[in-house]
Amino acid sequence: MTPEPDSEFEATYAAGLTRELPEPALPAGRTAVVSAAPAETFALKGCLLTPEGPVERGYITVGEGTAIQAISTRKPRAVPVHDTGGGVILPGLIDLHGHPEFNVFAAWEPPRQFINRYAWRGSEIYRELVRRPQDRLMAALPPQTQLRYAEIRALVGGVTAIQGTSERVERLEEESLVRNVDRWIFGRHRARAMIDLPDEGERDFPRLQRILDEIDAGAVDAFYVHLAEGRRDNQRSVEEWDRLLRTNALTKATVVIHGTALGREQLGALRDAGAKLVWSPQSNLRLYGETTLAADALDLGLKVGFGADWLPTGSQSLLHELRVARRELSRQGAEPPARRLVEMVTSDAAEIAGLGQELGRLEAGRPADLVVLERRLDDPYENVLDADPAWVQLVMIDGDMPYGRADWLEVLADPGDRERLEPLIAWGKRMMLDTSYTAVPATGEQPPLELLREQLIAVYPQVGPIFA
Predict the structure, then answer these.
(1) Long-range CB contact pairs, 330-333, < 8 A, 24+
(2) Hey, what's the torsion of the CAs at 245, 284, 370, 59, to 10 degrees?
(3) pLDDT at residue number 420
(4) What is residue 350's predicted lDDT score, i.e. its pLDDT?
(5) CA Rg value for the chain
(6) Could you tell me the domains of the chain?
(7) Which whole-number Å values give the CA distances from 203 to 9, 118, 134, 200, in the listed order?
(8) Strands 254-258 and 222-227
């Protein structure tokens, strides 16, 4: 049995993603012009990572509306072309596991390792460094403050969609600064999430039953659940697999987060059921000293995505997480091609999220969610794997530009929107950020990064930097 949380904060952590969301009336797609829009239809020239492979000196046309208009090897006529200087243009990155509100903290390296997630959640060092500061932030500030700061951190790292936003953020009527794959997205809500999988008789078991009924009815595409998060020699972690089977929660929509205690046979059973896996190696290795048998998962053909988890023990960005994953896969005896790893944060991630028809690929007619990276390596896929957030030149969501180089946005952005662009220095580069951007019209004014920092530091001076 999962122990009852011992404080208001633990209740929020343990149940933060389990509450059933109401179904407000929300029109499909965007209903009005939002900020960061381009001044006119234009094309970006660079190396395009398309489903068919890299297109050197390719052109991707975006502009009025929200979709990619065309992809071509020929210079488009009648529209201005912005040359990225050979930049690598790829779909926006998709981070499939996180706890964004905790990403205001600095990285935390535990003084010891733990046997499972229940052990560190109950430790005094965790209470002192993470839980009590979070209690203070929760009491002093609206939850949107922490979320928006975390969304900026994701955005500047090339991420255009995240998973894991807490139930405390009642933002059902808009789609926020980056897309939230398990909340409202593209005018629908077809994903559910739980942290601790409940057993029969536990508080959240009726909620689990409703989710499973929705999956059976075809109303849910992805069900995210933390499972077997601990060492493989820890019986409590291993037994969570039996709970998954006992509660009939192993379905084609099931997305297992972590799965560090699962063996090869169990990973094969996930594949056979049509379930998927999300891997967060950095956080696993810091907390438990070991991580998921990801090489076995890939060898078995199980669909695998990545999540940077949360900043206290995870990576600074999804790009950093990719580096950790590649090293760990090599240690486990696997050397997947660079393209395969890039697909795990783009097209594969979109399919895991049930959003394969909208996200994860550069194709005409799809939403213009993309990122432009500096080109430093000949192989464009290796260029992505070697990149960090300092290489990000431009991020586009739905055809709009919430983050990018100042000299680019001064040319590309609509003059009426430029006053909303916040100038900043990121890793020595002049960049611009639009915190007012939302995928659908916002319900209120969004504070700039400068004010967010002020508000957070007033309560918790040790707030982790974004441009570290």
Answers:
(1) 332/293, 332/294, 332/295, 332/296, 333/295
(2) -100
(3) 82
(4) 98
(5) 21
(6) 8-27+94-352 (3.20.20.140), 42-92+360-437 (2.30.40.10)
(7) 17, 17, 24, 9
(8) parallel
pLDDT tens-digit readout, 416-431: 777 788 999 999 999 9
**What is the residue whose two structure tokens read 């799809």?**
366
User: Amino acid identity, residue 146?
Assistant: Q
Q: Are 309 and 282 in contact (CB under 8 A)?
A: yes
- The predicted pLDDT at position 115 comes to 97
φ, ψ at 48 (rounded to 5°)? -90, 130
Q: What is the pLDDT of residue 176?
A: 73
Angle between helices 449-459 and 143-156 (to 10 degrees): 130
Tell me the HSE value of 154 on the side-chain side, using a 13 A CA sphere. 37
Q: Contact, 93 vs 318, CB < 8 A?
A: yes
Residue for token pair 């430029």: 418
- Pairing type for strands 422-426 and 400-405 reads unpaired
Convert the pLDDT of each residue in 10-33 to its tens digit: 444 444 333 343 433 333 444 433
In the chain, which stretches have pLDDT less than 50? 1-34, 172-173
Tokens coding 191: 């994903």
Contacts of residue 267, defined as CB under 8 A and 6 or more positions apart, other chains included, come to 259, 277, 293, 296, 297, 300, 302
Q: What residues contact residue 69 under an 8 Å CB cut-off, 6+ apart?
A: 41, 61, 62, 63, 364
User: Which single residue is written with the structure tokens 């389990």?
Assistant: 18
Hey, how many other C-beta atoms are within 10 angstroms of the C-beta on 37? Answer: 21
Would you state the pLDDT for residue 165? Answer: 85
Count other Cβ atoms within 10 Å, centred on residue 467: 16
pLDDT of residue 106: 86
